[in-house]
Amino acid sequence: MYRKDTDCVYNPPRHQGVNTPIHTSTANRYLGHTEILYPRSYNTENQNAIVEKLCRLEHGEAGLVFSSGAAATSTVLLSFLQAGDHVLFSQEVYGGTTKLAIEELSKYNISFDFVSSADMAHIESRIKPNTRIIYSETPSNPLLSIVDLEAISAIAKRHSLLTVVDSTFATPMNQNPLLLGFDVVLHSGTKYLGGHHDLCFGAVVTSQHLKDIIYRSAVNLGGSLNGLDCYLIERSLKTLALRVERQNASALQLAQALQDHLAVAKVYYPGLPGHPHHRVAARQMPGGFGGMLSFVLKDAAQTEDFLNRLQLIVPALSLGGVDSTICQPSKSSHASLPESERLELGITDGLLRLSVGIENAEDLLQDLEAALR
Ligand SMILES: *Cc1c(COP(=O)(O)O)cnc(C)c1O
Fold first, then answer.
1. Regarding the domain delimited by 241-372, which CATH topology (the fold level of the hierarchy) does it fall under?
2. Taking the complete model, does pTM exceed 0.90, yes or no?
3. Of 84, 126, 174, 185, which has fewest CB within 10 angstroms of its CB?
4. How many whole angstroms from 327 Cα to the centroid of ligand 1?
5. Does the keyword field hold Kinase (predicted)?
């Protein structure tokens, strides 16, 4: 067993090359072979190489990689649910996951509720006889709320429910939900695992038994990943520890500086002692608090001007890459919500979500300060 930063880099010596050779063949000889390689069988060498790496990083037995984070989410949900079942989602899951529930699960007579994960008693009171899954996401988007994974897993065990968590914002470097009692951890690899704004993929890590169940649906649903992307992911994972370490440190530094800035009304970052779930975050994110932070401008009318004045930080959607990106959730990820619902969630017009990259933190701070001035 190596430490995580070594596991990001090291490939077991299966080949003469240090890297896994790219395997692109979809037709493979079957005479004399017990296993037939095929991308949608999730068994090619390139898929296996990154799954093994992610399993070591997440302390799981088995996993699968998918063509997007959304494919990972939908495949996991559809492999465990059937008509008549019920799911509890934490209120602040990714917008695409909310849409998946409302627009797809409902077609199959699968019901669901969105619950505030901060209130454990509340969660337990919403469990129904037909509830099968508690689905969480932590830290959440865009307000960086923290779900207490140990507490949720204790409730789920009492009621024999499956627990699934979207750990995209944390990465395996900062948080390992399987060690906190969760059954399945999933990632939008499009964000930190890929890390360069040029790949779209998803990943699931779990036990061998649960992977076998997910696998049967995954083959039918067909969201598998191709060899060329696997190769780029293997390359990306080699620098994951370095990138996340820098992003953790810079995000904390920027959060502290923004907190003291006169033009900023509020900063959301789980690493700040004033964050409402700071103590839970410190316990369940031993690696760091992540590279995402949000802040609110005192003068919301200035938000678009502020974005236009930035020289280094790029106003762009998506997150988790080496370049720092920023967006205004009320005009992007949450634009389709009715205003009253948006405000209820705390997504005001002055709210900005910053994904801290690996640039020099002083340069990032100067860019923010100049635009705030
Ligand atoms: C982006 C994202 C997803 C969806 O992933 P895709 O790769 O875009 O399909 C799911 N969860 C979170 C938290 C995300 O940020």
1. Aspartate Aminotransferase, domain 1 (3.90.1150)
2. yes
3. 84
4. 15
5. no
